[in-house]
Design goal:
It is a single chain. The protein has about 325 residues and is an alpha/beta fold. The chain has ten helices and 16 strands. The strands form three sheets. An eight-stranded parallel β-sheet has the order 1-2-3-4-5-6-7-8. A hairpin with a 2-residue loop joins strand 13 and strand 14 (about 260-265). The radius of gyration is 24 Å and the shape is elongated. Bound molecules: pyridoxal-5'-phosphate. Pyridoxal-5'-phosphate binds near residues 5, 163, 181 and 182.
Length: about 325
């Protein structure tokens, strides 16, 4: 079940669905609106809505558009009991330890029995979600897995708990359906492991042109707040990308871009439309294209400089960035 929520982690839900539809068994999105967009675009693959319905009309939509809905909360049970029209495919989500969404594990059997009898439940599957699968040393993952097995033992239903980190690092957790998200886009979901370690390749490359080369005198300050000063006379470059495009303003010292095959330091503050780079010793011309992350510069590395995770970099690429799709 390929997770393509949040515009396929910023890559574009419809293009990603079109690229993957014949190699997956299902897609997953978070919200009903995301599912409707995919169906409107002609995507016919089985489609799971991870946060499920928030009103009765959503169940009708789920029936009409053949969506599978996750039922994780009492208010959704009430919707199901009130809605007695056409049958909808459901997942019961229960909480094995993350304490974000889901019913208590002790209720799984009772809910399974009740929902199995409801005429508007066409089929029933079981899911949960890991809190710490990205941490290979964390004991809560085996604990959650054991909770899954205990809570569902003997129930005749397909099960799912594995996100990307669990797909790669916790083979015992795969069950009937795996739900990879981040790994599909080529970043590493596991702390301390690179994407390359798992043979993952970046899907997105974020690029922008060098729009100016300027020459500083020793002591000249660069950018808003004058936070960086030239230690000597030197060339700097201005790259036409900034936080208005989703490049993190808060990358710290050590941040780099890739230009003409070389790593080049980012200097001064990132502004809305522009960031500046240190061109000492670099062969560069206006019009050269810098890679902010992607091929040759893993998003995971950039995320580290910004004290965040690749998920937020991907999801944060803004609407003004022009998307170009290969093939
Ligand atoms: C987002 C999400 C996933 C995918 O997580 P990744 O870490 O991106 O693989 C799987 N299951 C649920 C319920 C999710 O919300």
């Amino acid at each position: 079940m390929a997770v393509i929520k949040s515009l396929a982690y910023g890559h574009g839900a419809v293009p990603v669905a079109q690229a993957l539809h014949d190699v997956v068994d299902a897609f997953a999105v978070a919200r009903m609106e995301e599912a409707v967009t995919l169906r409107d675009a002609g995507v016919r693959t089985p489609l799971v809505v991870l946060e499920g319905p928030t009103c009765g009309a959503h169940l009708e939509t789920a029936f009409k558009l053949d969506l599978q809905v996750v039922i994780h909360h009492e208010h959704q049970l009430a919707l199901l009991r009130d809605y007695a029209d056409e049958p909808v495919d459901c997942w019961i989500k229960f909480d094995t330890g993350m304490h974000r969404l889901g019913f208590p594990p002790a209720r799984v059997r009772e809910l399974f029995a009740e929902l199995s009898r409801l005429p508007d439940v066409a089929s029933l599957r079981l899911m949960s979600h890991f809190a710490c699968a990205d941490d290979l040393s964390d004991q809560s993952t085996p604990d959650q897995l054991q909770c899954l097995h205990q809570a569902t033992a003997g129930l005749e239903a397909e099960r799912s708990i594995a996100n990307s980190a669990a797909v790669l690092a916790w083979p015992d957790s795969h069950a009937d359906w795996v739900r990879p998200g981040l790994m599909l886009y080529g970043a590493s979901p596991v702390i301390g492991k690179t994407a390359a370690h798992y043979g993952l390749r970046p899907v997105m490359s974020l690029r922008a042109p060098l729009i100016a080369i300027n020459h500083l005198q020793a002591g000249d300050a660069v950018g808003y707040g004058a936070t960086w000063r030239a230690p000597e006379a030197m060339p700097i470059g201005a790259v036409g990308i900034g936080y208005g495009d989703g490049y993190p303003r808060h990358v710290g010292a050590g941040a780099q871009v890739l230009l003409n095959g070389q790593r080049v330091p980012v200097i001064g503050r990132v502004s809305m439309d522009t960031l500046t780079i240190d061109l000492r010793g670099i062969k560069a011309a206006v019009g050269d294209v810098a890679t902010l992350w992607g091929e040759g510069l893993p998003a995971d590395e950039v995320a580290g400089w910004a004290n965040t995770i690749a998920y937020t970099l991907f999801c944060g690429v803004t609407a003004r960035v022009q998307r170009c799709y290969k093939d």
